[in-house]
Specification:
With 323 residues, the protein is of the alpha/beta class. The chain has nine helices and 17 strands. The protein has two domains: 145 residues, Medium-chain alcohol dehydrogenases, catalytic domain (Quinone Oxidoreductase, Chain A, domain 1); 148 residues, Rossmann fold (3-Layer(aba) Sandwich), CATH 3.40.50.720.
C-alpha cells in the first residue's frame, strides 16, 4: 500500500510517498497516531548522524492488520511499539515489540514507550544499591523519566543538576531531594556539602560535551586527605548519548578507581523485556509523560517540528509528530 512517510537529512525534514507491504508472519501493521522525536532523530537533522531514510522508533497507534501467528493483539487495539519506521502513516513491526494500550486511553502520545524502555535499562544497568547517594546530570526528557523511575525509597539522597531552572523545578516535583544549576552555583562544592562527601553514583543523562568531566569530579574515589585513607571508587553511568567523540579523564578514572558503565539500549540483555516492564510501569502510574510532552506537530509540518526540537526553544522538553 502507498502511504506518507517522513525523511530526515541535514537541515531538512519532508514527507514522501512510500510503500508498506502487508504484514507477514508474526508482524503487525500499525496505523500511526503519534511518534516521538528522539535525540537520534535530532542529531540526524543537525547533520551529526547520517539520514535520508524514513525513521522513527517511538510509535503509538491502532492495529490495522495482523499477520499469521500474531496472538497478542488484534485489529482495532490501541498499541505502543518498539521499532518502526514509525514516522509514517502506517508501519510494520514484530508482534513481540507491540504492547496494548488500555482502551480507555484517549491521548496515545503519552504512551510512547521506547524511551521508557531505555530508562528501565538505564536503571537496571546503574546497579543502584540501598543507601546510595545518586547525582543526576541533565533533567531533560530522559533525565526526568529517570527520576520518575528511580527507586527513591532506597536511596540515601538524589541530587539533580540542570542549567534550566524550570526543569529543576520539575525534577523536584518528581522526587529529587536537591536540585542545582551549574550556571548559578559551584555544584561540586555544593554536592559535597549536601552529601557530606561525594556521590556513590553519578548518572550522566544530558549527552552534553564535558559533562563526563563534571561527573568525574562529583563521584567518590581515590585518596581522601581528610581521613588519610583510600576511598573505594564509585560509579559513573553514561546514559546520555555523546554523539561526537570526546576526550575523557581516564587518568582520574584510574586514580579514583571508578567503575564506568554504559547503559545504552544495546547493553541490555533483553530490550523487549525492558519494553514490557516499561509499559507495565506506565500502566501503574510510575511514569507520567503528560507534563513532559510539551510540543505536538502534525506530520505535514515536520520542518517546523525538527527546527523547534533541534534549537530546544524555551519550554521545549519533548516533541511528538502526530498523524
Amino acid at each position: 500500500m502507498k502511504t506518507k512517510g517522513i525523511t530526515i537529512s541535514k537541515g531538512l525534514a519532508k514527507t514522501v510517498e512510500i510503500d508498506v507491504d502487508k504484514p507477514g508472519m508474526n508482524e503487525v501493521l500499525i496505523e500511526t497516531k503519534a511518534c516521538g522525536i528522539c535525540m537520534g532523530d535530532i542529531y540526524t537533522f543537525q547533520g551529526k548522524l547520517p539520514g535520508s531514510k524514513v525513521m522513527g522508533h517511538e510509535g503509538v497507534g491502532v492495529v490495522a492488520q495482523v499477520g499469521e501467528g500474531v496472538k497478542n493483539v488484534q485489529v482495532g487495539d490501541k498499541v505502543t511499539t518498539l521499532g518502526g519506521p514509525a514516522f509514517a502513516e502506517y508501519y510494520k513491526t514484530d508482534c513481540r515489540s507491540v504492547a496494548k494500550i488500555p482502551s480507555r486511553v484517549e491521548d496515545l502520545a503519552c504512551w510512547i514507550s521506547e524511551p521508557l524502555a531505555c530508562v528501565v535499562n538505564g536503571i537496571r544497568g546503574s546497579e543502584i544499591q540501598i543507601g546510595d547517594n545518586v547525582c543526576l546530570i541533565g533533567c531533560g526528557y530522559m533525565g526526568l523519566l529517570l527520576i520518575q523511575a528511580m527507586p527513591r525509597n532506597m536511596l540515601g539522597s538524589l541530587v539533580a543538576l540542570d542549567v534550566q531552572n524550570e526543569r529543576l523545578k520539575m525534577a523536584k516535583q518528581f522526587g529529587a531531594d536537591h536540585v542545582l544549576n551549574p550556571e548559578e552555583a559551584d555544584v561540586v562544592r555544593e554536592v559535597r556539602g549536601l552529601l557530606s562527601g561525594e556521590a556513590d553514583i553519578v548518572i550522566e543523562a544530558s549527552g552534553a560535551p564535558d559533562t563526563l568531566h563534571l561527573a568525574t569530579e562529583l563521584v567518590r574515589g581515590g585518596w581522601a586527605k581528610e581521613t588519610g585513607r583510600m576511598v573505594q571508587g564509585g560509579k559513573i553511568v553514561i546514559f546520555g548519548r555523546h554523539v561526537l567523540d570526546e576526550m575523557v579523564p581516564t587518568e582520574k578514572w584510574h586514580t579514583k578507581g571508578l567503575i564506568v558503565l554504559n547503559t545504552a539500549p544495546s547493553s541490555s540483555a533483553d530490550f523487549n523485556r525492558d519494553f514490557c516492564d516499561a509499559v507495565n510501569l506506565l500502566r501503574k502510574g510510575v511514569f507520567d509523560q503528560k507534563p513532559l510532552i510539551t510540543h505536538r506537530f502534525p506530520y505535514e509540518d515536520v520542518q517546523t517540528a525538527f527546527e523547534t526540537a533541534s534549537e530546544k526553544r524555551k519550554g521545549y522538553i519533548k516533541g511528538v509528530i502526530t498523524f
